[in-house]
Amino acid sequence: MACASCSTKDGSPKGCKNNGTCGTDSCNKLTVFDWLSNMSLPNGEKPFNWVEVRYKNGRKEYYHNTENLTLSIGDIVATQAKAGHDIGMITLTGELVRVQMKRKNIAENIEEALKIYRKASQKDIDIWQKARDKEEAMKVKARQFAIDLKLSMKISDIEFQGDASKATFYYTAEERVDFRELIKVFAREFRTRIEMKQVGFRQEAARLGGIGSCGRELCCSTWLTDFRSVSTSAARYQQLSLNPQKLAGQCGKLKCCLNYELDTYLDALKSFPKTDTKLYTEKGAAVCQKTDIFKGHMWYAYEGEWMNWHKITTVQANEIIEINKTKKKIASLEEYASDLVEDTKTEFENVVGQDSLTRFDGPKRNKKRRNNRRKGNQGSKNTASNKSSGSKNTGSSKNPNQKPRNKNNRRKPQNSKNATK
User: Fold this and answer.
1) What are the φ and ψ backbone dihedral angles of 185, each rounded to 5 degrees?
2) Which one of 15, 112, 123, 369 counts the least CB within 10 Å of its CB?
């Protein structure tokens, strides 16, 4: 979602060049559209005095506007921290903040609620930018220190506080890590207060962002806020191949999008019989080999004849199962499969460059012959037009240089011997 100032011009994006401080907050991660911005409050109602503030990589906090400052989306503010102050950007104001706080189970009447001090001055912004510029170089050194101490952890990101008095190190680890010695090294090297914060692999991918295999930005870094557990059964229900390279996302875990259509597949599978249920016929028992959820078809094969599959519908399969429950058998599956005679004839469209698969197999035609034929056709058309024009203008004027037509003035054959014979 881009704002109006980021539109394209002559096929290339213009870009607002705000570098992460977009005034309309449309280029930031996890943006909430304020659909109540154009609506006025009823008479006597006061605006909601809580605001949403965004920090680096989509981290959001909610603050109490005790000073009743006039704040709008995109304003840079100085907020209260445990020690000192932090610098963030307003991403949401008004009644929609109340909805977001209720959704995230944040109480409004908290005595220890964090507050907003003021709008950030230019001095505050300069200190904040200088601290942000140090983060990338610090991350490289921090990773090297962790490797030297042989700690099984990965430092994924560093975030400075707005007043540059504290640095938070985000890391991921499979097991619990004793990083007491690492904190001493960080404090001695970076000369600031250190805070270590462990995050999950999905949260790490959400903070860093990236492009998924679908070609779009990661869902967790753009709009997804709750991370539900994803199991391999979701792939089995959707009949996907259990290939970890295809099913895993950039976080190394199963993709969150496996849960998007899972409920629809489960509803569709309610009409399907269980795949381990056998169909008993006079020719023998048949076992399910394959199912097609979209078309509602199932393929069965007799025991011992595994190469011959018979396709029937789910309605027919349930009907046969009901007959088997009464301890009766049907004659054969061929009776039901014969009803599913499909028209395999396909109609292809004439697409340019794809109308024939063997178009390059034949020899290439000579361009000179083709050009000569074109010239000959054009000459014949010109002579025909001259004849037609001459026939119309016979009574007007004649060309004095034109010779009279004679039947004997015909083209002589090239072979004179044949002519004499």
Assistant:
1) -65, -40
2) 112
Pair 172, 153: CB distance under 8 Å: yes
The string of pLDDT tens digits covering residues 194-204 is 999 999 899 89
Q: Choose one of 288, 318, 337: the last residue of a domain.
A: 337
Contact 169, 143 (CB under 8 A): no
| 52 in Cβ contact with 79 (< 8 Å) | no
Overall number of domains in the chain: 4
DSSP labels for 366-414? PHHHHHHHHHHHHHHHHHHHHHHHHHHTTTT---TTPPPP-TT--PPPS
Output the pLDDT for position 73: 87
Contacts of 19 (CB under 8 A, 6+ apart): none
77 and 116 in contact (C-beta within 8 Å)? yes
Summarize the confidence of residues 73-83 as an average pLDDT. 90
Other beta carbons within 10 Å of 197: 10
pTM over 0.70: no
The secondary structure of 38-82 as a DSSP string is T-PPPTTPPPP-EEEEE-GGG-EEEEE-TT-----TT-EEEEE-S
Alpha-carbon distance 63 to 407, whole Å?
Answer: 109
Look at residue 89 and tell me if it is in a domain. yes
CB 314 within 8 A of CB 279: no
The single-letter DSSP state of residue 254 is B
